[in-house]
Amino acid sequence: MAPVTRFAPSPTGHLHLGHAYSALFAWHTARSEDGRFLLRIEDIDRQRCRPGFERDLLEDLDWLGLTWERPVRRQSDHFDAYRSALDALQALGVTYPCFCSRRDIALAAGAPHEEDGNGPLYPGRCRAVSVTEAAARIAGGQPYATRLHVANAVAITGQLDWTDRSAGPQTARPELLGDVVLDRRDTPSSYHLSVTVDDAIQGVTLVTRGTDLFAATHVHRLLQALLGLPTPGYHHHGLLTGADGKRLSKRDGALSIRALRDHGHTAAEIRKMAGF
Ligand code: GLU
Q1: Domain interval for residue 35
Q2: Contact between 93 and 152 (Cβ < 8 Å)
Q3: Cβ neighbours of residue 62 closer than 8 Å, sequence gap 6 or more
Q4: What value does the mean pLDDT take over residues 71-97?
Q5: 247 and 202 in one domain?
Q6: Å from CA of 140 to ligand 1 middle
Q7: How remote is the CA of residue 9 from the centroid of ligand 1, in Å?
Q8: Is the confidence at residue 180, as pLDDT, over 60?
Q9: Looking at residue 41, what DSSP letter applies?
Q10: 152 and 203 within one domain
């Protein structure tokens, strides 16, 4: 079946070669298989995202020669959709409020794992807070995040599978990332929740993204099962690295598409640098 792919950048900085690679990967996959290519702006983090970066990334992608279907989905326009999904999860009894600060978690965890680079794996402390105590704390105005109770969720769904075009069939292991956050005190959704909802709403049938998000897919598979959403195919691709062997990051300003363009590189040259 002709795939529907997407590129889903966050406007927290300028696109670099690694993003160009990921965007071109999704675009070429769609083009070469008579599919469709969609774009999504992942801007739920209102502190870090800037409209100027969104404008610039659309311009960069256009300059690189990519074409996409309109309208572009912007996550900050759809908080109501994520809220409904969260309500559905709450009704299933697979969430709990977490009152821990990032500092509490860092101190309690001492684990080397990271939940998407956002901090250490959550040690599950607030699972033990009783419903009455949680209600009292919330009524008292204590800030909290909502977490997915992975063990309770898996007890409902049973074992789940998904397939990666490169790595092959996978048994879902959502416990690898722990009880992930579904909404935060300052953001009424989370990466995991909004991505899962949006891929379904946009009708994405093949999610292509970097291997850095491989573990996240186990969680997304669980959310799909809980929310009754379809499971797309996946293709996690390798990540471009810099001269130091480290994966490119937005902090490498020198490698931004804009900087390369300002230095006189053509779009064809940049596509080639990114491997296309
Ligand atoms: N917004 C994410 C990022 O910029 C990509 C999410 C995804 O492809 O699922 O890293």
Answers
A1: 1-77+240-276
A2: yes
A3: none
A4: 98
A5: no
A6: 36
A7: 6
A8: yes
A9: E
A10: yes
